[in-house]
Every structure is written in structure tokens, then in C-alpha cells.
Specification:
It is a single chain. Helices cover about 50% and strands about 10% of the residues. It has helices at about 10-20, 25-30, 40-45, 60-75, 85-100, 115, 120-130, 145-155, 180-185, 195-215, 220, 230-240, 245-260, 265-269; strands at about 80, 105-110, 135-140, 160-165, 175-180. It has a 5-stranded parallel sheet, with helices on both faces. The protein is globular and about 65 Å long. The two termini are about 40 Å apart.
């Protein structure tokens, strides 16, 4: 095998060296990673939580937080169903943990592949409803294409929120609040199209906590979202999404949190 080495233009290397104060080697690596603009390259080198965009720029996130707040205020029965992979499990752990902080006791289910099949299946739904019918059902990392299953829940008077990053194969999902940048196809969603579900769930809980803090909620004031970034990093890395933009920020801080893991299961790993 013969490797062909293509060096970036010397003037581009010099420009990054001058702008960022980095070595020529690092400047060349940045250019090879597609970071040609000094500002973007600086952000790539130094991810910062302050650069995370307003979560409410995501289509329908405001509707989802409003429904969650109503459920929390009324102590409604909530069911969370997350896919069986690392993205789905970390998404479930993140959302359930936050809901518990605000006094909810959500029932959560992870589908069994051999018994329930793929995604939001009727089998998985029926198993999730066994402890009792909820008023709110939340599907994570699945559900975008589950038209019949969502209609099945809606017919029972159950509200549905779907947070997912898979592309829609058919018509837009009805009877559900859907957070999925790939479906709405709005210019503002570009920043989140590389995100897996746990990143989108983080945006959702960020929005929820932000609204509750604005209302003076005491518990919301004490929630440190940074403490949950270990879960976000797990799902982001395991789902093999590009470590760009907000993914890079969340993964960077999450890996630092993993280094001193507070969760017994992560310490065991």
C-alpha cells in the first residue's frame, strides 16, 4: 500500500499559526480536519458550554417542555421507552434522572430485541403499559416512523412525545410532539442534524430546567446539567455521530465527567 500525503497550503498553515498561536503541526492537523477559519478552528480546539445554542431553537421543543411541566405539576403517570442501544439507554437514563429530580416517578422500559423487535413496537408498548395506563408516553431513539403505534397510544387518550434522530420514511408523524431535526427540515435545525438522541434529550432537559428556573423553581436552581454530560458522552460516542459543533462540546465535557465518574455503574466500567 502506498500512502499519498497531501499537505495543506503553507499560507493557510501560517494563517492559523498567527491567529491561534499554535504550532505548525497542530495548524496542519486542524486544516486536515476541515478547520480552515481561525474562529471555527479556535472553537474546535477549545469546546465551551457557553457556545451551546438556545434549546428552544429546536422545532417543537417548547411544546415538549410545556407538556412535561404540566405532567410534573399534576404528578401524572409517565412512561419512558428508550431503544436498547447505548444511545437509547443513555437517553432514558438522562430523562428519567431529571424527571425524578422534580418529583416524578416515571416507569421506564427498554425493548427486548428478541421479543419486542425493532423500535417502538406494539409488544414493547404493551409491556410498558402493564403497570398502568399513563397520561404521557415518551419514546426515545425510536418512534419517528411508528405511525400505527403512536396512533394506538393516542386512541387510548395517551399523549406522546417522541425524541429521535432517525430519518422519516413516510409522512410526518401525527398524534405526537416530535423533536427530530431530520424531519422538520428547517434552516435552524442544521446545527443539530449530527446529534444522536441523547444530545437531543439534553437539549430537552436543558429547556425544561431553564423554564423552571425562570419561574423560581427551587429544585431547578440546584440542578447542575454538567453532571449529566457523562451520559451524553456515552451515547454520542457509541452512536458514532460526527464530533462536530455541539456534539464536540457535549462529548468533551462529558468525557471529563466520566474521568471522575460518580455513578456506581460507570465507575465499575
Amino acid at each position: 500500500m502506498r500512502w499519498i500525503h497531501h499537505s495543506p497550503p503553507p499560507e493557510a498553515v501560517s494563517a492559523l499559526v498567527a491567529a491561534l498561536g499554535v504550532s505548525p503541526v497542530l495548524a496542519e492537523l486542524l486544516l486536515r480536519a476541515g478547520q480552515t477559519e481561525p474562529v471555527a478552528a479556535g472553537a474546535f480546539l477549545n469546546p465551551a458550554l457557553a457556545r451551546l445554542a438556545d434549546p428552544f431553537l429546536l422545532k417543537d421543543l417548547d411544546r415538549a417542555t410545556a407538556r412535561l411541566r404540566r405532567a410534573l405539576a399534576a404528578r401524572e403517570r409517565i412512561v419512558v421507552l428508550g431503544d436498547y442501544d447505548v444511545d437509547g439507554v443513555s437517553s432514558t437514563a438522562l430523562l428519567v434522572s431529571i424527571l425524578r429530580r422534580f418529583g416524578a416517578s416515571p416507569h421506564f422500559v427498554v425493548p427486548r430485541r428478541m421479543e419486542d423487535g425493532y423500535g417502538l413496537s406494539r409488544s414493547a408498548i404493551d409491556r410498558a403499559l402493564e403497570p398502568g395506563k399513563p397520561s404521557l408516553f415518551i419514546a426515545l431513539d425510536c418512534g419517528t416512523n411508528s405511525h400505527d403505534e403512536v396512533a394506538y397510544l393516542a386512541a387510548q387518550g395517551i399523549d406522546v412525545i417522541v425524541v429521535d434522530h432517525h430519518r422519516s420514511k413516510e409522512k410526518p408523524l401525527e398524534h405526537a410532539i416530535l423533536i427530530n431535526p431530520h424531519v422538520h427540515d428547517l434552516p435552524g435545525d442544521d446545527a443539530w442534524r449530527h446529534m444522536c438522541t441523547v444530545g437531543l434529550v439534553f437539549k430537552l432537559v436543558h429547556g425544561l430546567v431553564k423554564e423552571l428556573r425562570a419561574e423560581g423553581d427551587h429544585e431547578a436552581q440546584s440542578v447542575k446539567l454538567r453532571d449529566y454530560l457523562d451520559l451524553v458522552a456515552l451515547g454520542t460516542v457509541a452512536d458514532l455521530v460526527p464530533l462536530q459543533e455541539e456534539n464536540r462540546i457535549l462529548a468533551s465535557y462529558g468525557l471529563r465527567t466520566l474521568k471522575d465518574a460518580a455513578r456506581p455503574d460507570l465507575r465499575a466500567l
